[in-house]
Amino acid sequence: MGIQNLHVNELLKRREIFADLINGSLHHGRQVLKPGDLTPLPAQSGTVSSGRRGQPSAVERTGDIRMKADSGTYSVIFAGEVQANTHYAMPVRNMLYDALEYTRQVKDLEKRHREAKDLKHSDEFLSGITREDRIRPVINTVLFTGNVWDGSETLHGLLDMNPEDADTRELLKYIPDYRINLIPVGAIEEPKNYKTCLQQIFSMIKYKEDKEKLSRYVQENREAIDRMDGVEMSAALEMINDRRLEKQIEQQRKREGEKMLGLCQAITDMLNDSEKQGLERGEKRLAQLCGRLMEAGRLDDMKRTFTDREFRESLYEKFGIRE
Hints:
By secondary structure, the chain is α/β, with parallel strands linked by helices.
């Protein structure tokens, strides 16, 4: 597990944040899942079976976040995966996780029936469970914090089969598909569907390529952003994944020590530095152009290039040019 995953996982372990992720992504902002409905589960899931000679055989998988949700209308196991990079086998990886969780639940039922000795019919003895038994559904989500997910989101997309071929399409009807529930943070269209710090984090990611929109958003939401604690801020920095911002935070730490100015100030400083660097590059290119025109004695070209008289005269003064 990478450093980025660790920071984001620490945030998602908070029940109010995980509930917000599910409500914002799966329920389109409706407050269906309550933090109090959630119970954290161990990250590991697996099953142990006996081989032909009675030797135990274990299959185990460790995920990122697992929560059991018990509400008035359903009981579900939610699993959350955090990916900073595309995992090209993710449909198979998640499918295995789901299968292990369902297998674990069935084995728990079998154990309960063995202890109670209440199986009555041959079909029940064969299955280990009764017709009335039910298992909890598993919903696996993949929070993708990278730039572009360029892998398949379905099992069918991984199969070595040509969907253009008529016979292949016929066979695909009999091959169960599996689709991952991908949540790409860089493509979230409605950050306002989220009610916790995820709204601010996803919004900043949405606007990070547009300097004006990012600056305006940060200023308008400064109070909410500056309320972020250390865990929230670390996760935000990892998901925003902008080296310039990380550099700004490092400079803050060197200047202020343990006293941090806050994420808003770091973003503002980053944008100001970027603008300043842009102006400096522009002035440098302007000076080079003026120098070339002066060397060539092309003052008429200078006039045609810089049509605003006041601006042109300021250049003359700056570079000691006489008409």
